[in-house]
Amino acid sequence: MNIFEALRQSHDRQRELLEQLVATSGDTPERKALFQEIQVELAAHERAEERHFYRPIMLDDNGIEPSRHGIAEHHEIDEILELLNETELSSPAWLVHAKELHHKVLHHLEEEERKFFQMAGKILSQQEKQQLSTKYLHDYQDALTQ
Question: How far apart (Å, rounded) are the C-alpha atoms in residues 101 and 18?
Answer without folding.
Answer: 8
